[in-house]
Amino acid sequence: MSIYFTKYQGLGNDFILIDNRHQITPIITPELAVLMCDRNFGIGADGVIFALPGENGSDYTMRIYNSDGSEPEMCGNGIRCLAQFIAEIEGDAPIGKTYQIQTLAGVICPRLEADEQVTVDMGYPQLKAQEIPTTLVSADNQVINEPLEIAQTTWLVTCVSMGNPHCITFVEDVAAIPLATLGPKFEHHTVFPSRTNTEFIQVIRPDYIKMLVWERGAGATLACGTGACASVVAGVITNKIDRKCTVELPGGCLNIHWSDTDQRVYMTGPAKKVFTGCYL
Ligand SMILES: N[C@@H](CCC[C@H](N)C(=O)O)C(=O)O
């Protein structure tokens, strides 16, 4: 079967987008997604995203496979790419157009902006989500600045769900973090029953942080939208940063705003088409 696709990237977090509007289940298996994501033997990507028909009154449904074939609940950079992809396949979508996208984390709303930017209403962050590890929990069923022993070091971790799980640690210098060694140890630690995404954060100023990410099911990536949102929430609740904050990732910057009016998190960043192709 030949599969037509379009490759998009958001700050170097790259995805294979598939027009799946004709059926309500993804047209490829997780096993095939792994092959397509392979950077040597396939197309190369951090994940595969499907634009499916909308459910429960939404415009579209988004499903995503990570590059290891696992299925996450949400993807921040991915939903910006999906919004641009939908605009392209629908044709003629004006700036300001907003889509209601059903995801496994609920309905998420991206809005098209000028210059290939997309602003996404990412919804409410959760500090007590199901996938947050109970073994780490202290007061009020939350994990805020709790000690976690990994690689002979005690890390103070804060866990935030943006629909998918994030474990955030504030460090002095992200450049000193051996991500490839530490990342898998966090991801597969027994306290995280659903595995976890892991963010290492260096505060430069209260309105500017640097972030390194190890993604569940994808490893080190150049950017993670849900991770940037979760990290700003973690920084605010630990009194380190402002509610409006720029997050610098290896692939570039995201602007995050955790609104104190409606308590929702808003993310703005780019999403760009790279090429189209046919996987044989
Ligand atoms: N890169 C994404 C997150 C993708 C899902 C993640 N790997 C998970 O398993 O939760 C983003 O931009 O949010």
TrEMBL record:
Pathway: Amino-acid biosynthesis; L-lysine biosynthesis via DAP pathway; DL-2,6-diaminopimelate from LL-2,6-diaminopimelate: step 1/1. One of its GO terms (biological process) is lysine biosynthetic process via diaminopimelate. Transmembrane segments: none annotated. Gene3D superfamilies: Diaminopimelate Epimerase, Chain A, domain 1 (3.10.310.10). One of its GO terms (cellular component) is cytosol. Its main location: cytoplasm. Belongs to the diaminopimelate epimerase family. Homodimer. This is Diaminopimelate epimerase. It catalyses: (2S,6S)-2,6-diaminopimelate = meso-2,6-diaminopimelate. Keywords: Amino-acid biosynthesis, Cytoplasm, Isomerase, Lysine biosynthesis. GO terms for molecular function: diaminopimelate epimerase activity. PROSITE patterns: DAP_EPIMERASE. The gene is dapF. Its EC number is 5.1.1.7. The active site is at C75, C75 (proton donor), C224 (proton acceptor). Catalyzes the stereoinversion of LL-2,6-diaminopimelate (L,L-DAP) to meso-diaminopimelate (meso-DAP), a precursor of L-lysine and an essential component of the bacterial peptidoglycan. It is found in: Cytoplasm. Substrate binds at N13, N66, G76, N77, N164, N197, E215, R216, G225, T226. It holds the Pfam family DAP_epimerase. The record marks H166, E215 as: Could be important to modulate the pK values of the two catalytic cysteine residues. The keyword Cytoplasm applies.
